[in-house]
Amino acid sequence: MSYNNYGQPPHGGYGGQQPGYGQQQQGYGGQQGGYAQQPAYGAPHGGYGGGGGGGGYAGGFGTPSRAPPPGIDPALFNKFQEVSRGDEAISLLELQEALRNANNRNFDLDTVKYLVSTFDTNHDGIIGIHEFVGVWNYIRDWQNAVSQIDNDKSGFIDRNELQQGLTAFGIRWTPEIVDLVLRKYSVEDTTGRLFNQGPSIPFDRFMRACVTLKKVQEAVDQRSHGAGQVQFTQDDLMKFVLSLP
Ligand SMILES: [Ca+2]
Ligand SMILES: [Ca+2]
Known about the structure:
InterPro entries: EF-hand-dom_pair (IPR011992), EF_Hand_1_Ca_BS (IPR018247), EF_hand_dom (IPR002048), Peflin/Sorcin_CaBP (IPR051426). The protein is built from 10 helices and 2 strands; from the N terminus they run H-H-H-H-H-H-E-H-H-E-H-H. It is an all-alpha fold.
């Protein structure tokens, strides 16, 4: 799978998956949820308290209707059944509804499409339980990595954190590139909480930015053998651009 090549979050230097993170950060970013859960972004309800997400799943499911398949953590299977609304098949929009940033903002549809295209290994357009495990672990790994660079625990990545993150993730950058990334991936925060810290990027958009930049860098490196210049045919370039999340 392609994500094994360049979609994975960085591992080295971040202490890997420290299960303790978050537990000591209760109230992260001044809200329930955020990075404080394990994994925070997978929780469709409960823990995020408030915001639009809590009510949508009320009723209809509670305890799993059956035992989890062999090798599947029961709590994760329970979550899978919740997110799938009980039919054990997670659609694109069901996954989007379940995945939240620290301000309870849903992941972008483009981010969710990237996750589905990466982990829908049988290409049926829906996320089954084993594919869900892949999504879950992937987001958890990214959370762990991003938590290490989100210095002020705001749940958003600001300019300084972005520069630190790109460097830590092995992405070569210039100030102009940082400006462009901020312009493209930052969001307005309707709560006004961000106004004093400049443009900032929510978790899912930051993840997508890093994957995109990493893919471009690796494509150039692989094709140029380090020379930094590559030639694409139009068809190849179109396919490459369309493969970016
Ligand atoms: Ca599938
Ligand atoms: Ca921050």
